[in-house]
Design a protein that fits this description.
With 120 residues, this protein is of the alpha+beta class. It has one helix and eight strands, in the order αββββββββ. The protein folds into two domains: 1-30; 33-119. The strands form two sheets. A four-stranded antiparallel sheet has the order 1-2-3-4, with no helix packed on it. It starts with a helix and ends with a strand.
């Protein structure tokens, strides 16, 4: 009777480990995905994009300012912070100066700390 359990228990453990790895492999995208928000400048010439990106191994944040007419990227910054911030939805703010010459990006983490990037 004990010999049966000696063989069955390791097989069950191996099957569970295999299923966990298969689940993670299927649900974790190998390519970058993300989401964010964009806001037009007051003069409507530019658009600021703040995006939270991730892939299977890391998370990063992409900030861009583009000319609306040509869709040309004027400024592009990529940050790899040690803390996870969210720039999507209510957690992300993009605030332009009134003269459209600078923009602030702000994101909030789960512990309510804030990351701010100023681009001029």
């Amino acid at each position: 009777m004990k010999a049966k359990y000696i063989l069955i228990i390791p097989l069950i453990i191996i099957a569970i480990v295999f299923l966990v790895f298969m689940f993670l492999e299927i649900t974790t995208p190998p390519y970058p995905i993300g989401g964010g928000k964009s806001v037009d400048s007051p003069d409507k010439k530019y658009e600021a994009h703040g995006t939270t990106m991730r892939n299977a191994t890391q998370r990063w944040y992409k900030f861009e300012i583009r000319e609306k007419e040509t869709d040309k990227t004027i400024v592009k910054k990529i940050l790899y912070p040690t803390r996870a911030y969210n720039f999507r939805g209510e957690n992300g703010l993009i605030i332009w100066s009134s003269d459209s010459k600078s923009v602030n990006f702000a994101g909030k983490s789960e512990d309510n700390s804030i990351c701010i990037l100023y681009i001029k």
